[in-house]
Every structure is written in C-alpha cells, then in structure tokens.
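hey so i finaly got around to running the thing on Ribosome maturation factor RimP from Acutalibacter muris. pasting the sequence first so u can double check i didnt mess up the copy paste, my clipboard has been acting weird all day
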Amino acid sequence: MSTKGGVAARVYALCEPLAEELGLAVWDVQYQKEGSEWVLRIYIDKEGGVGIDDCVAMSHALDPVLDREDPVPQEYVLEVSSPGLNRKLTRPEHFEAYMDEPVRVRLIRPLEEGTRELEGLLIGYEDGKLELQLDEETGVTLEKKELAWVCALDDIDL
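ok and heres what it spat out for the 3d tokens, dont ask me to read them lol
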C-alpha cells in the first residue's frame, strides 16, 4: 500500500485510467466514516450523464485494482455514482469548469448578519479564494477555509 497522499488521493489516481478506458471521468473521490462504517465513494461523470450501467462498469473495473493495490487501511463500503445535477465543487478544475455559472455556497460560520448560504455567479477562484457575484451590485470574496461546500446550480437562472 502506498503511503503518499490520503486514501482518497491514492484511489483517485487508481480510478483515472480505468474511467478513461470506459469513456468516463472521475469527478471526485471521498473516503469518510459514516456511522460505524467507512465509505469509499467514487463520483464519475461523462458527457450526456452517467447511468447505472456506467456505475456498474466502473465498480467492476475498480474492484480488482483495489484488491491488488490495497489503498484502504480498513474495511469499507464501495459506492460508485454520478455527482448529480447540483454537484459539489471540490477541485480547482471544478471551479474553473463552472466559472460564470450559478453556485450555492454554504459557509462553516454565518456572516455577521447571520447568512449561512449564498447563491450567485462564480466569477473567480484563485489561490483558495472564491469570488461570487450575488447581484448586479454586490460581490463577495470568500476563503476556501470558510466554506462548508460549494455546489453547482445548473437549473437556476441568476
């Protein structure tokens, strides 16, 4: 088992070539404890959307690689799915792909006036700083460390 990077980073590296062979892209990999179980969640994507057959194919391709490489230190549940319509943006390339698109941001701590969620156009992301245009007159810059999550809002016109 490799010791460089966390479990999610190691599994992401294992997933990328497999996904490419299947005509898919890896959107994200999460490894977290949920209740008493560890869950390894692989989010895949492709032009036109992901179906159940894509998830099954990725799971079947990944199982023997995970068994051979053993990147996960304990028992876990493997889930392969689509990131969904309101997908969470977690990597720099996600923010780049959704530039000038509507997003929803959830803050770890509320702003002074008590607001904890914001919606606006993503107009910048650099060096861990996210810029949102909330309306025609109001913009805000937030540090990544202030964010609980950011998700795309593909179905909203701001």
